[in-house]
Amino acid sequence: MDHTDSLLNRRALLAGGAVLASAPAFAADAGAAKIVAEEYWAQNGAAKLYMYRKRVVGDGPDTKPVLFLAHGSTFSGRGGFDLQVPGLPEYSFMDEFAKRGFDVWTMDFQNYGKSSRNTGNNSDIMTGVSDLEAAMPMVEKVTGQKKIMLKGQSAGAIRSGVFTMRNPDKVERLILDAFTWTGEGAPEIMRRRKDVAIYQASPTRPLTRASLRGIFSRDDPSTFEAPVPDALADYELALGNTAPTGTYIDMAIHMPMVDPTKIQCPVMMHRAATDGNATDAELLEFFGKLPNPDKWFCKLSGIAHVAVLGKNRRRVWHAMGAFLTLPGLA
After folding, report:
1. Which of 4, 109, 206, 234 has a Cα at 20 to 30 A from 122?
2. pLDDT one-digit tens code per residue, 253-282
3. pTM to 2 decimals?
């Protein structure tokens, strides 16, 4: 959907000046109701953190369950979860789940997208966790809700797992999409381990059209449509030509960082049929250690690492939507 019709432009400040909000909003037609997008800003030390929200208004309920999306190592929140692909409709995960009744949020971790760049660190996993913790007061202030449903993709899944360990009272349900636990024997993680000295030499690595295309083509090129990586590159390269190295280093030599026994909420693990970031064996071992019996392990064919931007994304949406709307116990 195209973003049209500016609806509002407001600024707010939380007490103490810790979190800033700037929220120009846009609407996209969805029948009588509208999908509204808003921008906010949080602060983590000196770093300004860009936050983005989409929800349907005019459909009845004002309060909706909050679904927060955490991006991975290479591209930003809006690039991964709200991509608009010319000539190819319905690639926005945020639009889809807003239409399903969720109040959908994402953010750019520092040194990604529209958030502060050159912050003096390489945006490793724990920096991303601290960014999530800095963003949550804004979500609670705006929505009035103290708990979220959290979906992390790739390195974002690791960040989300650690966040949930540290903040069990904040997360109602957790989706680990394209997750890495140990990485042992996984082709992409072994490649990063071999090159770890290169990543340790600089806080950033080059971000190019070719490197973004490579994320799609490395596992199974048949799973994506050709315009998609170029649309992603158009969005990301307009914001910067580097990505941080921190998560690559962590995934190469610092795994595991998530302890499954310390995640108490229901968990869905989504595994693509072809994904070089993990092995089935490590993920099934992790799954077996999760203590909550409301746990799902979902492996889908026709899917590669960036599942939500693939040809068969609707299968992913269906599975994740079913988990997120599973009725609670009577």
Report:
1. 234
2. 999 999 999 999 999 999 999 999 999 999
3. 0.92
